[in-house]
Amino acid sequence: MEDVLDLYHQPYDPICPLVCFDETSKQLLADSRPPLPERPGRLARFDYEYVRHGVCNLFLFFAPLRAWRHVKVTEQRTAIDWAYCMRQLVDEFFPDARKIRVVMDNLNTHNPAKLYEAFPAEEARRLIMKLEFHYTPVHASWLNMAEIEFSALTKQCLKRRIPDAQTLEREVTAWCNQRNQRNTTVDWRFTSEDARIKLRKLYPSIHD
Predict the structure, then answer these.
(1) Shortest CA distance to 60 belongs to which of 50, 51, 72?
(2) Element (H, E) at 177
(3) Which CATH number characterizes residue 181's domain?
(4) DSSP per-residue letters across 5-20
(5) What is the pLDDT, as a whole number, of residue 182?
(6) How far is residue 104's CA from residue 196's CA, in Å, rounded to a whole number?
(7) N or C: which end of the chain has fewer CB within 10 A?
(8) Strands 50-63 and 68-74, sheet pairing
(9) For residue 60, what are the CA distances in angstroms to 16, 46, 77?
(10) From residue 22, how far is each of 16, 78, 106 by CA, in Å?
(11) Does residue 89 belong to any structural domain of this protein?
C-alpha cells in the first residue's frame, strides 16, 4: 500500500511516467421500442424492456500527472488482451519513456509472464524492460486512481443503454477527449502517513 501511496506523491517525470490501469465490463443493451421524446412538461420516456447485445470490456489508462486518459474497448479481457494493452502503452502512448510505472490491481492476468504467452520471448523481454509494475493490495483496489476515472465515466457516460460496441467506443472516446482537453485530473491527498493513522488496524502489531 505504501509503495503505491509514495508513488502518487512523486513529481512528474516524463522519462518515467506514472500510469494507472484498470478494467471493467459494460453490458450492451438496446431499446425494445423507440423512446418517446421529451416535450414541454414531460421528460423523455423509455420502455422498461430492453434487448441484450452481449458484454464488452473496457481497459482504462490514466496518467494523473499528465491529466490524460484513454479507454480501449475490447470483446474480452484475457491475459492476452492485457499484454496487447501493455505493448500499446509502451509503443504508442509513451514511446520515449525509459520506464513506465504502472499501477494496477493484483489480478492473475496482470502478470509479466503473460507477455511471453502473447509475444515472442525477445519482444516480451523488450516490453518488460520498459515497464515497472506496482500492484495495489488485495481488497484495496480503491488505491488505483483509474477506479476514480471509471466512476466518472460511469456517471457521465455509461449510466444508460448503449446498444453496440461501435457506439460504446465512440462515446467513451468523446468522453476521454473532453476530459483530456480540460486537463481534468485527480487531486490525490491520501499519504502513507495518513494510512498509518487511519488504517493502523491493517498494520502488523509488534509484540515483545
Answers:
(1) 72
(2) helix 165-181
(3) 3.30.420.10
(4) HHHHTSPP-TTS-EEE
(5) 96
(6) 22
(7) C
(8) antiparallel
(9) 19, 30, 12
(10) 19, 13, 10
(11) yes
What's the number of domains the chain is made of?
1
E strands within the chain? Answer: 18-31, 50-63, 68-74, 100-104, 131-135
> What confidence score (pLDDT) does residue 208 get?
45
94 close to 17: Cβ distance less than 8 angstroms:
yes
Which residue ranges of the chain lie beneath pLDDT 70?
31-33, 35-36, 43-48, 50, 206-208
pTM: 0.87
Q: What is the pLDDT of residues 77-95, one digit of tens each?
A: 999 999 999 999 999 999 9
* DSSP tag of 205: P
Q: Which amino acid is at 56?
A: C
Residue 120 lies in a domain: yes
Cell of 133: 509494475
Expressed as residue numbers, the domain containing 170 is: 14-30+51-185
Residue 1 lies in a domain: no
The secondary structure of 67-109 as a DSSP string is TEEEEEEES---HHHHHHHHHHIIIII-TT-S-EEEEE---TT
Residue 4 lies in a domain: no
